[in-house]
Amino acid sequence: MVFQGIRKMRLAWLFLSALACSSLQAAPVPMDQNGFTEYMVAKMRPEAGETPVQIKEPLALTVGSLQVNLGRLYAFCQQSVLNCDAEASNFAKAMADALKVANAPIDKDAVRLVIRPTDYVQSVELASAKAGSPTHLQYRPLVEGLVALAVLDTPRSIRTLSDKDLEKLGLTQDQLFDLGATNLRKLLKPLSEAATPAAPGKLGQLATDFFETSRVALHDDWKPLVDAQGGVLLITLPAANYLLYASDDSPQAIDALRAAGRKVAQQSPAPLSSAVLRWTQQRWELVR
After folding, report:
1. What's the predicted TM-score (pTM) here?
2. How far apart are CA 284 and CA 10, in angstroms?
3. What's the rounded Cα separation, in Å, for the pair 129 and 135?
4. Sign of CA dihedral 280, 282, 286, 288
5. Residue 3 burial by Cβ neighbours in a 10 Å radius (0-12, 13-18, 19+)
6. What is the pLDDT of residues 127-146, one digit of tens each?
7. What does the domain layout of the chain look like in residue ranges?
8. Which DSSP string corresponds to the chain?
9. Which of 90, 168, 148, 181 is nearest to 272 (CA)?
10. HSE-up of 187 (CA within 13 Å, CB side)?
11. Are the CB atoms for 221 and 119 separated by under 8 Å?
12. pLDDT at 23 over 60
């Protein structure tokens, strides 16, 4: 009888413990900016170890020498509450990895190029200036609102490269971008194998690798596809790892391309751009 009583008590305790754990796991992520910022501080401190994590302002932190902008993660969490906690944990781990490699020697084979919004570059440089350590990122304008940005590809994160990194590498900016382009071509499947010509009224897509949108920085690599599509190539970059392209430049086709891009962006934790670009012999051009 005593054994049965103890057994029942244990079962009750396990049941209550399970309820407690369930309620903890189900605790909602704060959706106001101040609460979300404090929530991310709590996420990041265990990952940062002895490196101080401090709040600069709502949705902006400093982690040691790193400037951390929470704006994109916050926007994702507002749209996808159920996936927010997991994405926040991934974000914190990526931050910890970036912290480890910030002062490590730069592996030239890990230099890449990515496409990012111009306002992203401006926000990073402005934040570094406010923090008293001005940083000048290594980038080149692509079209209005977008740039090609030099980065370092680490196992858990992507780190932007600055003028200080350029000095460490002993390269000019032209050499840095040539290196990033060379490494991309080694990393990615040739475009002729990855992208088949899009039929009229249909969209092609590239979404198998995080650096698929980086192909836009390799302007001349697209010419064979342009020729195969009768001289027309329009693209949009709705997410960091997702590129859509078309062979039709009618107003209806452009609208369809934009709509498809918006749908992808709404479902992505890393939306990139709603712009539609046209390939020309000299450069990419913005389709208005």
Report:
1. 0.68
2. 68
3. 7
4. negative
5. exposed
6. 777 766 778 999 999 999 99
7. 27-101, 108-187, 191-287
8. -HHHHHHHHHHHHHHHHHHHHHHHHTPPPP-SHHHHHHHHHHHHHHHHTTS-EEEEETTEEEETTEEEE-HHHHHHHHH-GGGHHHHHHHHHHHHHHHHHHTTSPP-GGGEEEEEEEHHHHHHHHHHHHHTT----B-EEEEETTEEEEEEEE-SS-EEE-BHHHHHHHT--HHHHHHHHHHHHHHHSPPHHHH-PPPPTT--EEE-SSTTGGGGGG-GGGGHHHHHHTTT--EEEEEETTEEEEES--SHHHHHHHHHHHHHHHHT-SSB----EEEE-SS-EEEE-
9. 148
10. 21
11. no
12. no
Pair of tokens at residue 109:
């084979």
Over residues 233-271, the pLDDT tens digits come to: 999 999 989 999 999 999 999 999 999 999 999 998 889
d(CA 280, CA 288) in angstroms, rounded, equals 15
Residue 72 amino acid letter: R
